[in-house]
Amino acid sequence: MTAEIVGLFALSVLCDVAGQLAFKLGAGNVPTPSKGQWGAFARSLVATPWLVAGIAVYVAEFLIWIRILALVPLSVAFPLASLNILGVLGASHLLLGERLGRNHWAGALLIMAGIFLVAGSL
Predict the structure, then answer these.
(1) pTM
(2) How many domains are contained in the chain?
(3) What does the pLDDT look like over 68-85, one tens digit per residue?
(4) In the chain, which residue ranges form alpha helices assigned H by DSSP?
């Protein structure tokens, strides 16, 4: 893998983790939609700074992802994108104080094994 591809994957994962953290932080400030009040609900979403930040980061990630797909076969890129799962698990634990149990760690190890297998095909 070239340095550009590694860097793009790292940026993609960082964007995904940052976006998910922003969505989680913003979700607590959004009211539950009332029947027939979807317009007000949508306005409350775009008035929540964390949610707007999350969307902006996801737009950046989309642009990075398109570049990755121009360089790497989809059958390789998509499984490698699973690194974002590990990043979100770690960030939710370290930054949000969420508890991770044995099943989380076992799943993370299986994901890592799959990533190593796919990365070896490059």
Answers:
(1) 0.84
(2) 1
(3) 999 999 988 988 888 898
(4) 3-27, 38-46, 49-71, 74-80, 83-94, 102-119
